[in-house]
Specification:
274 residues; mainly alpha; 8 helices; globular
């Protein structure tokens, strides 16, 4: 009977060593750039440059949307990249917006201010953790709760608009302070709800589209360029409340409002487990 030689007795050159996993640089460069955007926003807020802080968060949003697409296009997905992306999101769309809003308005409210900022920060952390654990059982067409980049855009977009109108800080203006307080709580709590928000993941950029669609996209860019603070904030206000509209519509039609799969056979759950 042949015996399998013990690895210790095998010649050194015959021992098969496990291959070390490398780190793909291209997608992680986008992730690091998004992380830098969040860090830059915090630094700018500490120096009372709230317009630049808002721009930093919006730049981080753009970069965050690209890293995953670049990884898929170049076939460079990795577990390291997924973990790095989550950590970057927590800084750029969790801690940074909470700290920026606290510096801009909430510190004048004392304990209520930092509690509201913490609720937002904790909501972002819980949202990201739930997203990572439920990714295989959630309908790809919808997000479960408000996505953290959209929540960040809602919070810093409000600051950007007010800063553009001349309000460099809101701690001494009661109506503005309480508006910021309410918006921060809304964004933080909506992230951890089960309200469905459309994800746009079923939109394919490889399909041909009518010419009018290209014209509409060009007009949209022109509109954003005309007045970025107001237009971007308006877009994310619409999106930030759209989930409740979808929830009410599906409820009225008798359709399931949960985006979590309970079966793969039901027609209403055709987008699940893809």
């Amino acid at each position: 009977m042949n015996e399998t030689p013990d690895p210790v007795d095998m010649p050194h050159e015959d021992v098969v060593r496990p291959r070390r996993k490398g780190i793909y640089i291209l997608p992680n460069l986008f992730t690091l750039a998004a992380l830098f955007g969040g860090f830059y926003a915090i630094v700018m807020a500490m120096n009372q440059r709230f317009e630049l802080a808002a721009i930093g968060i919006f730049c981080a949003m753009v970069l965050d949307s690209l890293d995953g697409r670049v990884a898929r296009m170049t076939n460079t997905q990795s577990t390291f990249g997924e973990q790095m992306d989550s950590l970057s999101d927590m800084v750029s769309f969790g801690a940074a917006p909470a700290l920026i809003m606290y510096e801009w308005a909430l510190q004048g409210l004392g304990k209520l201010g930092w509690i509201a900022a913490f609720v937002y920060c904790a909501g972002a952390a819980l949202r990201l953790a739930r997203f990572n654990t439920n990714i295989t059982v959630v309908d790809k067409r919808f997000f479960q709760g408000l996505p953290s980049p959209a929540a960040a855009a809602l919070v810093v977009g409000f600051i950007w608009v007010m800063d553009d109108l001349g309000y460099r800080g809101a701690s001494r203006i009661d109506w503005l302070t309480w508006s910021a307080f309410a918006l921060t709580l809304y964004a933080g709590l909506t992230m951890v709800t089960n309200v469905p928000f459309y994800s746009f993941k079923d939109v394919s950029f490889r399909r041909s589209v009518p010419f009018i669609v290209v014209v509409a996209i060009a007009l949209a860019f022109a509109l954003i360029a005309y007045h970025p603070p107001a237009v971007l904030f308006a877009l994310f206000v619409v999106y930030g409340f759209s989930g409740y509209g979808v929830y009410a519509f599906r409820k009225a039609k008798g359709k399931p409002v949960s985006v979590i799969a309970v079966s793969t056979d039901e027609p209403d759950e055709q987008g699940l487990h893809r």
